[in-house]
Amino acid sequence: MLNLNGSGSARLNLPMYQNADNFTVKFKVKYERTSTALQNTWRFRYRAKDDNNNNALEWATHNSKYFIMRKTTLGGNYYIANYVKSLLDEWHDYELQVSGITHKLFIDGVETVSGEDSDSLAPLKGYFQWNVVGGINLMIDDFSIEPMLPPYVIDLQPSGNFSGIYAPGDTPGLDLALDAGAAAHTFQIDYAVRRADGDKAVVAMGTRTYDLAKYENDKEIIPFDPQLSAIGTYEVTADFEVDGVPQPGKSKKMRFAIAKEAAPIREIDLDNESKFGLNTHYALNWKDDIIDGARKLGARSHRSGIVWEDVDKNVKDGSGATVYDYSRTDPTLDKLFSYGFNQITVLSLEKNANYQAGIANTTASLKAMGDFVANTVAKYKDRIRQWEMPNEPEIFSKPYIPAEFVQLQKVAYLNMKKADPNAMLLAGDHTSSVLSVLPKELELGSYEFADAYSYHPYVYNAMPDGNLQKLTDGVKGLVNAYGGWKDYYLTEGGWPTANSGYPSVSEEVQRDYIVRAFLNYMVTDQVKAYEYYDYKNDGTDDRYYDIFWGDHG
């Protein structure tokens, strides 16, 4: 039995394990928490080149999810599949099958999660390594690795545009890639295209057949017949047979959209002339077509973030001045700027362990935080105007002490205005509990050190009409009592579409609610932006609402 306790790694060093590509790994695992840290993690890396370029099966306490992921130097982690489950303190049998572009996890003989990754960034082969971080006692037994013959591969994507979002004049279709693997095969694809709304009528369908010798591959663009031209959303389904046998596990369902007009790339909307914005959780490892799809849909603002602890490691230069490192921030923001998105940027300024533990509240830490804000705002002057306080402090800061956050707000505001008088501090950044949380902050002086207020109007099991307005009017009433007009930025808000669990709705209801919410805010004075949460789902486990917020409208 192998035991990793607390932190550390164990790499398989035998030559036969250094360059593995197709394999089945079996093992028993029991894991226990040995720390109260927010995130305790264990992972099994495979197809690994190094710690920053690999695939991994990972479980972490902060979200109780199993992830199969790709990690690359460009953009960090990319989740291929996930499964929301905690199996702390118990022995269980695990089986990880990796072949071609397919990754499957079995727990106690049951397939729990699977996903495919045909991205050009995907690792192809490498070594195996166990790793624990932050306080996990990991026990591993009955470990084995068995090679697999190269399997056949079927990879189907939207053609010409990975996001499946098209403008009039584009030619929607399917991009099919086949690889026979270690044996000859005959492949057949049957596709159908239906309207995603209304009568859901079939508007196109077709069949293609391919004969491939062993290790042969083929790639083809399949245009729809007849071609799609009408504005709207479409559901595309594709079923496969291999050697005459149906393969339901290879079936695909995709959503396409033909927009009336693709929004152009415009100058950054610093004045928020448009209220339409999005949360995306964008990372550089996305295909460009995905984030460009948000631009095509007309989103003008985008919620980003800069973390004090990431930029400022409490390092000084020869003159004693603080060294700020934006090397992990600039590439992402520059990419988003290139699409014309106005960044409404969360400043995660509440803590930095390089100065003190917990929320910054000492004289030295507050000065360092203020210096960070001044430096950051000056750096992005004329490119970012709206800066937001830390995200949902009443949830993510334990304990949440209003006086500490108002103190942070005051220091940030004064330093921000020194760096750029036109910069705006969006105070609050609260959840739908804003009506119960904001009063205490206002009592402590928040109003005088805020250009605007932000909050997240999540309204469940109810029509947006009336309920959203009631929440907005409630916030206005609280703020107006301290002096009057402030603008409001609604930097999250949405409806999940998971298959089970409160507060999910159907995709059709979500679509209608999104439209009604935007119409509501378009005619509401003082509301400057509504950034829908979320542009796309953050995982694959459709039992769990918290990762299924993606816009399906």
UniProtKB/TrEMBL annotation:
Source organism superkingdom: Bacteria
Molecular function via GO: hydrolase activity, hydrolyzing O-glycosyl compounds
Coiled coil regions, renumbered to chain: none
InterPro entries: ConA-like_dom_sf, GH, Glycosyl_Hydrolase_39
Name used for this protein in its record: Glycoside hydrolase family 5 domain-containing protein
Phylogenetic placement of the source organism: Bacteria, Bacillati, Bacillota, Bacilli, Bacillales
